[in-house]
Amino acid sequence: MKKIGVLLSAVLLLSLYTTAYASDLTKAVQGVWTAKVADAPYGYQDYQVTIKQVEGKCVADITGSQLNVKNQELKEVDGKLTTTVYAGENVQVVIWKEKKEVKGTADTSMGKLPIEFTRKQESKQ
């Protein structure tokens, strides 16, 4: 269960790393997202991911009921953001932009699990 959470965190962190290079992909993923890994075990399905730049690097903060990761570095490889996180096992997270959507996968011992990203709307007060 922790593996899926770590994988999701890695994907989000990967998005942050790409933003540091100001590529179209990094510009597209920078911000606050909700991420859902529907096929993950209970407790590892829902996350809030914040992708940002810190000291010139793209990083992600990932928060969920079973996972809390800060400043996970994301790297851009072949037009996709990648990172590896540890959640009981190493989980590779990959994030990419497809048309107007941001998508991802978490590669775990359970297989590649799809990650659905939804940009959070800023509240106007």
Any descriptors?
nine-stranded antiparallel β-sheet
Strand residues, percent: over 45%
Residues in helix, %: 10-25%
What is the CA-based Rg, rounded?
13 Å
SS-based structural class?
A: alpha+beta
Query: Unreliable runs, pLDDT <50, ≥5 residues?
Result: 16-22
| Structure summary, number of beta strands | 9
**Strands ordered across the widest β-sheet:** 4-3-2-1-9-8-7-6-5
Major sheet details: 9 strands, antiparallel
Whole-number mean pLDDT: 81
What's the overall geometry?
globular
Helical run tally: 2
Give your account of this protein's structure.
The chain starts with a helix and ends in a 6-residue tail after the last strand. The chain is an alpha+beta fold and 125 residues long. It has a 9-stranded antiparallel beta sheet with strand order 4-3-2-1-9-8-7-6-5. The chain is built from 2 helices and 9 strands; from the N terminus they run H-H-E-E-E-E-E-E-E-E-E. The longest helix has 19 residues, at 2-20.
Give the topology, please.
Blueprint: H1 2-20, H2 24-29, E1 31-36, E2 46-54, E3 57-64, E4 68-73, E5 75-77, E6 80-86, E7 90-98, E8 101-108, E9 111-119
Antiparallel strand pairs: 1-2, 1-9, 2-3, 3-4, 5-6, 6-7, 7-8, 8-9
Write a short abstract of this structure.
By secondary structure, the chain is of the alpha+beta class.
